[in-house]
Known about the structure:
Layout lengths: L1 E5 L6 E5 L8 E4 L9 H14 L6 E6 L9 H13 L6 E4 L4 H13 L3 E4 L2 H10 L11 H13 L2 H4 L2 E4 L14 E5 L13 E3 L1 H11 L5 E4 L5 H11 L7 E4 L2 E3 L6 H9 L14 H7 L3 H11 L6 E3 L1 H12 L5 E2 L1 E3 L3 E7 L5 E6 L9 E6 L2 E5 H6 L5 E4 L3 E10 L6 E9 L9 E2 L2 E2 L6 E8 L23 E8 L11 E4 L3 E7 L8 E6 L3
Parallel strand pairs: 3-4, 4-5, 10-11, 12-13, 14-27, 16-22, 20-23, 25-29
Antiparallel strand pairs: 1-2, 6-7, 7-8, 8-9, 15-26, 16-19, 17-18, 19-24, 20-21, 21-22, 25-26, 27-28, 28-29
The protein binds adenosine-5'-triphosphate and magnesium ion (MG) (2 copies).
The site of adenosine-5'-triphosphate (ATP) has 15 residues, from helix 1 and strand 12.
Amino acid sequence: AKVRAAASSAGASYDIDLPTLEGHIVTRFPPEPSGYLHIGHAKAALLNDYFAHVRPGGRLLCRFDDTNPSKESMEFQDAIIKDLELMDIVPDATSYSSDYFQQMYELAVQLIKEGKAFADDSELGKGDQERKNRLPSKRRNLGIEETLARFEEMTTGSIEGQRWCIRARIAYDSPNGTLRDPVIYRCNLTPHHRTGTSWKVYPTYDFCAPILDSIEGVTLALRTNEYRDRNAQYEWFQDALGLRKVPIYDFSRMNFVRTLLSKRKLTQIVEEGKVWGWDDPRMPTIRGILRRGMTVAALREFVLKQGPSRNTLNLEWNAFWAFNKKYIDPVAPRHTAILQEDAVYCTVHGVDNLEELTKPKYIKKPELGTKKVLVGKTIVLEQVDAQSFTANEEITLMNWGNAFVRQITKDTDGKRIAALDLEFRQGGDVKKTKKITWLAAVDGNLVNVDLVSFDYLISKDKLEKTDEVGDFLTPVTEFRKQAFADINVKDLEHSAIVQFERKGYFRLDAAFQKDQPRMVFFDIPTR
Ligand code: ATP
Ligand code: MG
Ligand code: MG
């Protein structure tokens, strides 16, 4: 069945094959609170949100998959709630796998009593080998009473209990590895961030997902297709427990070149101080990407446009940023920045002293309002521009007017331009002239700013699972330049997106403050 509907923010439509069209759709996004959300999670979250609300009456559930206390924390749980908010995703309900620990425990006991699960103490070591070779575990025939006793022992967290796990008795010799008697319960003594030390045994994700999807009324379980082999297992659990069957729809993972999308590895670079934190603009986290200057609307459109595809791609970032440019260009006010180390001071003849003009913030979008342009006898422009001038050339000082280049003064070794004399010309023709960015060099008009651009953290296109992150970190990824910006930038609010003319788009990361010496802008990639 095809579903076609308008995406909320982008206003675009997407053709997506769905396994069911009956009634309303209930989906769930099941993050594990073991890290901040990244761009891969954004795909899962946005697709779930999209399907849930594609027709009236649908619901998006956010269910924290908090079944492994060793990796999880309250900090991450809170972070994920906030990350969803940042993407304008409002779940219709939020729940926790840990809310169902008692119920899942009882269902495990039920499986055992029906002869569908057994206790095993070979899983941790030899079990994997047996599974690979499609051999039964030597405990496979352990009886119901003995299995129940072992499970009981496990719940105490004793040394003996910790040696055991519970496995579903499905098919040790199945061609599908996920059916070879998967583990459903394990011991863990680490206190849980929500349930503390109440539990010493925890269900695995494999056991949890089919149960909770069914119990919570999910009508469409979206999963990434690396789980496709697990679909048969998912159905087996629902059958074995007599639960309502939930249809599955799978989509591909979203990966990007030179980008880590493993929470374990991201945690590692945060903990080792390789980045400023989870919201570092070089991080592929939702916070990092937004801090770099991505807009939510563009993120949504990008994900939904390529989302339904089932090929696992290693995407290039440039397509992603090109989407963003469509959104930011029409609304970004235009400002001026002159690199400080390249500033050339010029005297402009034929003008009165300081004057203040009023110009549109973006000539094509008068609705964005106006800005002040200070003009005067002394201005700064950039070395590259100065070097391109020939004597008596007519140039255009953007937002002001034309001028002739009358005198070019080189520095002592003759390599750089030390000063220029310009002669202002009223009403010159701007069609054939170079357009030059400049600023009046008067107190207050030259605002100190840092322009920061970034490189990829990872130096290899596709990191393999076995690659050590430390071996593939780009040595230098932050490039900071000092510049003068026009006086209007002082009024910009934190997170504002602007264009510095002839330089590109930037997002304001540190707004003007009286006692702060410099404002900070991050370069927003556009390709
Ligand atoms: P990691 O491997 O980094 O720990 P995970 O997949 O285990 O990630 P979860 O918190 O369990 O992290 O993921 C929540 C949801 O996001 C899952 O449905 C998962 O399939 C999906 N997801 C995670 N990474 C991606 C990705 N790169 N592309 C698409 N969906 C993803
Ligand atoms: Mg997971
Ligand atoms: Mg994972």
